[in-house]
Structures are given as structure tokens and as C-alpha cells.
Design brief:
By secondary structure, the protein is an all-alpha fold. Helices cover about 70% and strands about 0% of the residues. The chain has helices at about 5-30, 40-55, 60-85, 95-105, 120-150, 155-185, 205-210, 215-235, 240-265, 270-295, 300-320, 325, 330-349. It is globular, with a radius of gyration of 21 Å. It starts with 6 loop residues before the first helix and ends with a helix.
Length: about 350
């Protein structure tokens, strides 16, 4: 691993992204020629297939992982919505080509509110400085966690799993933030945050619906949650429409994580990560039902509900989310790649 040559991988990475970008020029022209519906979906299916196979040309986890997530999950789901004149790619008037490509390929969503634009310059600068400081602290924390892995053979497995939980959160948030930064800097767009301090969640509904990876939440609502809830309302009635919609959303999330694991490991799925999301979907259904039954008459203090929520996510993550990662050696591969990448950056500075 120490002699890894990144050059061929970087070349493949550039080719993959250029191919995807070029394909979206075709998609951008479709609305003027094909109305939304089955015909447009049929015309876009080759692009969806292309987005599905392109990441197979990458093997380096820190390049392949985000590309799989952006293309196979977010990108394809956005294209499916676009086929029926829905989702972030559909707009009146139509999006510009650059805007269309950026939204399709990247985990970003433009801010609809102009509140920040009206803020005093001094307040805006303080807010930017605060964000930059928090970002720097999180980068240092991630680097510290990676450095601790050198001593993993002397550390209890439960502590390692706790570090993995922190690593996943910091790694995913920082990758998404770095992806969005050039768009914000070059095009001047104000973008919605991808995370909202999930460690402050006071319930599973709060954690998954309003704080954790909001790009996924934003794409699962129109593609899974709302359609299933509409169908369930017709079949079961409005009272019982919510549980199937919640469970279906979590099942799809679990299956998409299985897909990501398969791309990275090429190992047959063992479905633990799917069961992780099924479990959390069931718990969210119970939580929502309990809140309705209590109708605000009794509520745990956030100093209690917060640690319980984060602790439940961490414990069930160690039980069901990470076993496939550890079993297939993806954790060690990612850590080795990260260490080598840091060393290469230091050597070239």
C-alpha cells in the first residue's frame, strides 16, 4: 500500500467525471424536445446506466466512494425525478447548463431564502469566520482520529467503533463541504448546509429528518416517501399512511448503502447495513406514534434525549453498520489511503 501510484487513478477519475459531465449536456436539451413522462424516462435511461457503471472504473476509496454516492444514488434519483418534471433539475424557467450540471453531479442545493443576503456585512463576515473555524477544527479532529489508528492493536474494539462513528460523520461532512466549496466560491451561489450538527439531535426523527446528510433526506422525500405515502393513503387511509412511507424510505436508504458497499468491496451483500436502516425506520415509526399519543404532555429533557439518541445510533452502528466494512477490510484500506495521501501532500508542500 505504501507504494501506491495515484496517477492512473487520478486519470481515471478525470475521465469518469468528464464523461458524466458531457452526458448531462444531452439531458439538459431534452425538455425542449421530449415532455416529461415515460418517453423522457426512456431517453434518459442510457444516462442512468452510464452513471451506474462509471464508478466501477475507480478503486481508490476516497475517489470512488464520493463518486458512487453522487452518481449512482443522488445523480440517478435526480434524473428519475427530472424524467417526470420534478426535483431540483426541473425549473421554470429552465436551469442554465452550468447550473444543471452542478446540481446533477454534486450534493448541493441552492438556498431559496435571501435572508443572509440582507444581513449586515459585519455579521456575515463573523458567520463565515465561525464556519471556517469549525471546519478547521473538524479537519484537525479527523486527522487526530486517523493518527490514533496507528495504535489500534492496543485499543479496545468498542473504542475503535466509537472512533469509526466520529470518522464517518467528519469524513462525510468534510467531503461534502469540500465538494460544495468551489461552486460557492466560483459561482457565488448560497448553498443549503449538508449537515445540521447531528450530534445535537434529540430524537431519531430529528437526527434522520433534520440533521444527518440532508442531501439524502432531500432526495428520498420526493422519490420514495411522498409517493409511498400517497399510495398508502389511498389503500390504508390517511391514519395509517405514515408508517409504510417511513419504512419504505429507510429500506431504500439501506439498499443504496448495500450498493455502495458492493461497489467498494465487490463482496456479496450480507444485508447488515440494510437491517440497520430497517431497525431505525421501525424505531422512528414507534417514536412518531408515541409523540402523537402523548400529544406533548410529557417529553424527555434534551440533556437526556440527546445522549440517548446519539448513543443509540452509535451502538446500532457498531452492531449493524460497520461489520461489512470491517469484514471486507474497507476500514483499513481507507485509513491507509488517507495516511498516504496526507504524506504525499506534505511532501509536495
Amino acid at each position: 500500500m505504501g507504494s501506491m501510484n495515484f496517477d492512473p487513478e487520478i486519470q481515471s477519475f478525470i475521465k469518469v467525471w468528464l464523461t458524466a459531465t458531457t452526458s448531462l449536456i444531452f439531458c439538459h436539451q431534452i425538455p425542449a424536445r421530449i415532455p416529461g413522462g415515460a418517453a423522457r424516462l426512456l431517453s434518459i435511461l442510457p444516462i442512468i446506466y452510464l452513471f451506474t457503471v462509471l464508478p466501477t472504473h475507480l478503486s481508490y476509496i476516497h475517489l470512488a466512494g464520493p463518486t458512487i454516492f453522487y452518481f449512482v444514488w443522488l445523480g440517478n434519483f435526480k434524473l428519475l425525478l427530472f424524467s417526470f418534471d420534478q426535483g431540483p433539475l426541473s425549473s421554470t424557467p429552465p436551469l442554465s447548463l452550468l447550473h444543471f450540471i452542478s446540481i446533477a453531479l454534486l450534493p448541493i442545493k441552492t438556498e431559496t431564502s435571501t435572508k443572509q443576503d440582507q444581513s449586515p456585512t459585519s455579521y456575515s463576515n463573523i458567520k463565515k469566520w465561525k464556519k471556517a473555524s469549525i471546519f478547521a477544527v473538524k479537519c484537525l479532529l479527523l486527522a487526530a482520529i486517523v493518527s490514533i489508528y496507528k495504535y489500534r492493536d492496543f485499543i479496545h474494539q468498542d473504542v475503535i467503533l466509537a472512533l469509526y462513528c466520529c470518522h464517518v460523520y467528519l469524513g462525510v461532512e468534510l467531503v461534502l463541504a469540500v465538494t460544495a466549496a468551489p461552486v460557492r466560491a466560483i459561482l457565488g451561489w448560497e448553498l443549503e448546509p449538508q449537515f445540521n450538527e447531528p450530534y445535537l439531535a434529540t430524537s431519531l426523527q430529528d437526527f434522520w429528518g433534520r440533521r444527518w446528510n440532508l442531501m439524502v433526506t432531500g432526495i428520498l422525500r420526493p422519490t420514495v416517501y411522498h409517493p409511498v405515502r400517497r399510495v398508502s393513503a389511498r389503500v390504508l387511509g390517511n391514519r395509517w399512511a405514515l408508517p409504510p412511507a417511513i419504512l419504505a424510505t429507510f429500506v431504500v436508504s439501506g439498499l443504496m448503502h448495500e450498493v455502495i458497499y458492493y461497489y467498494l468491496s465487490r463482496a456479496s451483500p450480507t444485508w447488515e447495513v440494510t437491517w440497520f436502516f430497517v431497525l431505525h425506520g421501525f424505531c422512528v415509526v414507534v417514536e412518531v406514534a408515541a409523540k402523537k399519543a402523548l400529544a406533548g404532555r410529557w417529553r424527555l429533557h434534551r440533556m437526556v434525549s440527546g445522549p440517548l439518541t446519539v448513543g443509540f445510533v452509535a451502538v446500532t452502528g457498531g452492531w449493524l453498520f460497520f461489520p461489512q466494512v470491517i469484514r471486507n477490510g474497507l476500514d483499513r484500506k481507507a485509513i491507509d489511503e488517507y495516511s498516504i495521501l496526507l504524506r504525499l501532500i506534505r511532501d509536495r508542500m
